[in-house]
Amino acid sequence: MFKTSILVLLSFLNLANSKNWIRSGYVYAGNEFPVSGIDSRLFTHLVCAFAYINSSNSEIYIEPSDETYMSTFTEIVTSKNPSAKTLLSIWAGKPHSSMFFDMTNSSMFFDMINSYSTFFGMINQSSHRTSFIRSAMIAARRHGFMGLDLSYVFPSTSANKANMRSFFDEWREAINSEPRKYDTPRLILTMGAMYSPVMDSIIYPVNDIKRNFDWVHVRSFDYHVPSKDRFTGAHAALYDPSSNLNTDYGINEWIRRGLPANKLLIGLPYHGYAWTLVNSNDYAIGAPAKGKALTADGSVRYSYIKWYLNNYGVKPVFNSTYVVNYCKIGSFWIGFDDVEAIKTKVSYAKEKGLLGYNVFQIPNDDADWILSTTG
After folding, report:
1. Would you tell me which of 73, 104, 286, 309 could form a disulfide with 299, CB atoms 3.0–4.6 Å apart?
2. CATH 3.20.20.80 is right for the domain spanning 20-270+339-374
């Protein structure tokens, strides 16, 4: 009788966890991939990027070329999956600098870390914060989104963190009060952040994030990229015995500094990187490399990687130390997450008690949605 009760309780807990498990992913409006082509049944939440901040009045705006894409996004997504939730992502960086999102272009991404005058200029003034918050919520409602996402903010000074505290509190209060005024469901509020709350000059205000955001999309990838590193690297290493540049370290730091595990979504990249080897006979992780290969910045969509593997008859290697797949094609080395890596990371996230995972980005999967069905 006791054993039966325990089994029933465990089954109930597993069912509860599966219901709360979030399978989220980004979709870039500038991508030519149609929303109708995404199997939204594989996800609980889809994040449409990007809206931008007008530097003259701090209000949110959507590019005219993205209007149709965004205004029909929720309708198309929910036609296949009525229970799916959609979020509008707001780019907190320099206007029109999000071209990296079309692929990854991480070298551009890291160059932009210090280009956030528009965002931090906005949060420095109360009236500008009010304009941002009001216009963001109006944009979400007008286009049918069920939540808002802030991507990506890099607080690097004490003044930045102090102003962010006021901004986050005011945004949360506005979101909480809206349903009482207009009898509408409460908007979801999320943030995209780097893999660790502390890195170089960046220090996130963890307690303020904990208090005001529903969860954080952790950018747990692009640790090593061929535009910067002259050696092959596991760009989304779950573990790294010789470095803190790994997902396990970052997740543990977020939790250690006060953000609950159930407010974290691990990032799953649907892209890899290609390096040109110095010596084609030396192709282990960490092998000397000349730099990028195959594309302008070395980033390669998973669907393209699969094409290369099939076309050249190459079987990738799975490295369980770093949790990464890699392959060598001639003098090129490609590191990426295949099915084995995705499975391991999803299991890790569940064991750590995380809220779920977030894909960067969904259309990079192959035609059979092999990675998305794995998660």
Report:
1. 104
2. yes
